[in-house]
Amino acid sequence: MNNKYAIVALLGILAVLALTMTGPGLTVSHWNDQVKIEGSMSTGSLEWDITPTGLSWNTNTVMHFDAGVRASGDGPGQTGIIGINLVNAYPNGYGAYVFQVRNEGTIPVHVTFWFETGTGCAGNLADYILINPVFDAPFYNGEFDLLNYSIASIQDGWTSPYTRPLSWWLNNVNSMSTAMSLESNMESGTVLYTNTTSTTIMQYDTDNILMPGEKTIIFVWIGISDELQQHEEYMGESCGDAYNPAFYIHYYAVQALP
Amino acid sequence: MKSKEKLALVLAIVPLLLLTMSGMTLSHWDDDVKVEGSISMGTFDVQMSLEDFYDNETSLDVGHISASLADWNDGDDVDGGVNDSLIITMSNVYPGYEGCVVFNIDNNGTIPAETNETMITLTGSSTFDWDTYGEYVIAELYYLGGGTPLLLAHLDNGSLVYDYDFTTDPQGLLTLDVGESQWFQLCIGLTQDPNAPEAMMDTSMEFSLVLTWIQAVP
Predict the structure, then answer these.
(1) What is the rounded (10 degree) CA torsion for A241, A125, A135, A141?
(2) B35 part of a folded domain
């Protein structure tokens, strides 16, 4: 064998050996380090309800309310209905019905209400139903006082004083003896609806938020306008339940935005 | 013995003796040279550091986010994987809520590091119904080192989508020189979608994002 060829062959073998050894060496010798991000996310819940408290106040004992939940709407995308009948109503008879809103979930909610009058006699009785929702508890110095709170806005026949201590409302309206938020986040307001029609749905969208665990009381003033006296066609016995006009509260809640 | 034979014997022994004596003498004239070397290894250590975390709630304060650093030994961390893990916990999340965590990836070693998109893996919890709810989940990874936030990747129906060209890597995000840090932000939340299914309430999901860094080739 020629010496030149022998040298070339030897160099070739060395190169192969070098590559063979370097190859695994490269793989192994590459140090590495890992970092990681571990995340977990749990969602909350949107739960709330509106319940009639069974408490009401009216100008006398003749007229009273018969209320009940017609459809529950305690979840997202659901609309609930509370039906209230003014039993044995008459012109110039007024009263306040009380119901409670509770946020039982973990997410703040906006509650929106629609007030709808039922079809009365000839479908026009609704024109004489007055609706006045009050989205805040009228407390003065810890006393529940409808008279002083509402005197500026209520009409004749609405002025009978009705004063209870705060503790009474805590125990009776909310069936709880522990302190809780009766200072509603809902904006107090006086919205008086008159001359409604049975086909009109009135909406009151609360601007404020009911926080998780919070409760509030909503008073709805309902009455029959004395103008009805001028329309005896609605007062005759032929009108059937015209003396018990129906009134519906539709409610709907959506989560509050961040 | 004849004189010729004696002479031949002498001639044979004398040079041998001379050579032997000469050799003994030469063997004392030696010298050693040596090369002493020492190699000290560098360290390869990529860690994370936490800058901040916050959410998008302004008037409310019901959703919660927290973030913290933790050690994570990926198997051969000589330091036990100090600060190799970032733990993000979000609770009471609702549609529209979004939380963000600002963090750094730091090269705390003595050797440059590099990575590529194939070494980024995302794993979501198998118990979460990604097919049904994935479209409502927001997850966006931003690079903050360039001034304005640069969207690098986001979650699309539960799958990781790259918005950044990792092939050309114009921001040089795939390399970390010694002592260098890269600044990132990860935002997670739920979309503000009125059609978000009610069944998403009271559910939980987990995810794990792993980035593998290797030493840069000389």
Answers:
(1) -80
(2) no
